[in-house]
Amino acid sequence: MSLVKSESNDEELKLANLWKHYLYELQLKAPKPKRVVCKRHIPDRPPHYGREFHGRITREEANELIKEEDGRYLVRESIRALQNFTLALRLIYKINLIITFNFYIADFKFN
Question: Which residue from 89, 90, 108, 91 is spatially nearest to 100, judged by alpha carbons?
Answer without folding.
Answer: 89
